[in-house]
Amino acid sequence: MNTETNILFSLESIEEILYSISSCDSMAHTCINRETLRVQFMTQTFLNIKNNQVKIKVGTKYDIQEVSVLNLELLFVFGINNIDNLVSVDRDNMKLNFKADLIPTFINVAIGGMRGVLYEKVKSTILEAYPLPLIDLQELIKQNTFHVEE
Fold first, then answer.
1. What pLDDT is recorded for position 29?
2. Which of 18, 48, 69, 115 is the most buried (most CB within 10 A)?
3. Which helix (H) or strand (E) holds 135?
4. What would the pLDDT profile of 42-90 be if each residue is shown by its tens digit?
5. Residue 127 above 60 pLDDT?
6. Which residues contact 38 (CB under 8 A, 6 or more apart)?
7. Which CATH class is domain 9-149?
């Protein structure tokens, strides 16, 4: 992979796709602690070649005893000066050929942004004591799915 490719990019927008939280009353009777709280992550990457954009969708879900108490999904849109310097799409073989390894950077920015949004949403609730935990970015990237937008 070429690491010397000059690629200029910027964060163009952040969109809230989904947010839900159980009422504090319903959670107050539930035993919430680090052992009972299960946090799940999701990430998807969308490449919009025509508009020179990479969109990173990130989400988290908090479950307590298999009951969902919080869901958050955000879409981060990055503009790329020339997306052809980043990736080429092999439609015949259904493959993406990356020329530069920027997807981890985009995912890292999105997770950090989601952490801040989540903090603002849960402050003054019972979930305030449970910020988004640190995650292994490499493990999250392994679960990342790629989509090409037409």
1. 54
2. 69
3. none
4. 999 999 989 999 999 999 999 988 888 999 999 999 999 988 888 888 8
5. yes
6. 62, 63, 64
7. alpha beta
